[in-house]
Amino acid sequence: MNGGMPDAESRIERAEIDRSLRGPVLFFFSSGVAWLLVGSLLGLLAAWKMVFPGLLDSADWLTFGRVRPAHLNIVIYGWASAVGMGVGIWLMARLCRVALRHRALLVASGVVWNVGVAAGTVGILCGQSRSIEWLEFPGWATPILFLGYALVGAWGVIMFRYRRPGHVYVSQWYLLAAFLWFPWLYATANILLIWRPVAGSVVGAVNWWYGHNILGLWFTPIGLASAYYMIPKVLGRPVHSYYLAIIGFWALALFYSWNGMHHLIGGPFPAWMVSASVVASVMMFVPVIAVAINHHLTMRGHFHYLKWSPTLRFTVFGAMTYTAVSFQGSLMALPAVNNLTHFTDYTVGHAHLGLYGFFTMTMFGAMYYIVPRLVGWEWPSARMIRWHFWLAASGIALMFATLTLGGFVQGLELNDPQSAFMSSVAVAAPFRFVRGLAGFLLMAAHLVFAVLFVRMLLRRGERREEATLLARVEDSATARTEPRPPEGGGITAV
Amino acid sequence: MSRLPTLFFGILAVFATSWLGLVVYPYVQLGHLQPERSATTGALTPAPLTSSAVAGERVFAANGCVYCHSQQVRAAWLSTDIEKGWGPRQTVARDYLNERPSFLGTMRTGPDLSNIAVRQPNVRWHFEHLYEPGVVSPGSIMPSFRFLFVERPVGATPSPDAVAVRGPHKPRAGYEIVPTQDARDLVAYLLSLDRTQPLPEADGTNGTKRTDGPNAAKEAKP
After folding, report:
1. Which residues in chain B are closer than 8 Å to A60, comparing Cβ atoms?
2. Which of A218-227, A413-422, B38-47 is least confident?
3. Is residue A383 exposed (0-12), middle (13-18) or buried (19+ Cβ within 10 Å)?
4. Can you list the domains of chain A with their CATH numbers?
5. Fewest CB within 10 A of the end CB: N or C in chain B?
6. What is the pLDDT of residue B1?
7. Residue spans per domain, chain B
């Protein structure tokens, strides 16, 4: 990626770019981690309220119908979008090989974004939620978010415009697209749903066009951009196929953007709209398989790196989950399957697999790579990284499994004309209890990560010359023939 | 793919197809819909909402009822919704004309509310149910909405809409539990949810007021 530049010179250039990014990117990461803790706590509360409806039920601001959207919006806008913007800006600057200018302005836009998230959350808890899924923030809070985003998006596009000449890498396509799609999505949804609301069922169409595209055209491209960067970077080898990457990118843009209506199969809409979305959902196999093959063949023969590289372990977990969750999503759009899973906890499991198993895990992986370069310090504890990984991985696996099984039996009861409604509540109850337990695992994972992150910012622990790895690179045949994984601040290759 | 204009316009053009297809065109296609006027009675379907019901729609939104309750009856060829008693016919775009926003919902953690006014037309039942759902409807995991009610001293005669509390949250001696305006509005909204009137584009229209199926029976007041 560095052309034929001498190594010392490119290392100095990278260090300069990293220095220019330190303030803004660390700000987005820090605020994101703080919101992750708040969002997890609210999610945990909502999960246990479904098991014990009497839990904290006397105050209006703690009722389930407010805590749940507060959880969702905090993790979407406070955590995932913020950390996504941080990773996106860092990747863009590194790949365009331009240092960030006017970084104070970017920090300011991060502050504005966070004010928007905080204001919107208070709005929801105080009873001003719009109850339009993924867009619950009241109408007076969303312009703050838009303003906060505008500068970040503009910076991304401007950096691309002033990039150093040379090859444009696949991650840059995804990032440029995400930076352009998000404002279009967010503005359309806000105008038609909140500021000048449309009447009737069109709300549902716009709602799910937004709701699905924010996943598919905002979080997914950022996650894939990160995976496309981190996997080759840590391995020190090129991406397997440029052409597969092109197919994956354009097919994602074309098919994902049409997926939204599969959330409303059977709903009050003209049949062609739902049919178009079902077809597009099935066509998602094309970009997903292209990306999966590309990542797999890049990794082939190097899976032992997962033993020691934290970045790679989280990123590959995310990339594999992306394949799995996308296959699942395509199948869920088939009317025969949707008939069983629609309206049940199965969908909740799917949503968490996508946003957590894929996106959040990929972002953790990116942060393990980026933060040492910004702070100039290595992660203080390999043991805590291992705890973080295993708590998060087992938490999301358990949550997904229990919601999927619970949703399945719930769907059978809901569809059975002879069964009373209340039996669908009864059969789902044990699965919801286990989901609450899985929430504790995820909460613990986030606490471990938050402590680690703060210790990192404070440069705690011993000074290390080399990257913090999860296991000693064994003196085996493979380790001798492979270069050491270029992880952390000490070593930068490629 | 290293030229900015190619990428830039490609990215925007591809996305524009879905924006035109799933946002703009439906907006145009569904935007001109008008209520159906009965030739004999002149009544409109859907019926206009009262101001209390409009206020109740905001209470419904503020407290996130939509996260557990859908408001859509799917067609008989696709689902068992009609057999199950959620409504006598499929709901169609015109059913939602008066709502801003419409709450189609994506979860049935609780029962579908498309026709709750028909299944459960009793105002007092709704107040009691909102106050103590688990007592009124055994097995329910709906949270209590006690915060939509106030406890106040009983006047010369008890209020006609005082809640007959059966569970643990009884009023103190000499006090009674009465709904706030928010609770009254919310119930007015719930009692406006009746999508049983025939519409020509909905299949299976028969205009029957009562729906059968296990849920109709289960939710009826004992």
Report:
1. 63, 147-148
2. B38-47
3. exposed
4. 7-481 (1.20.210.10)
5. C
6. 62
7. 49-219
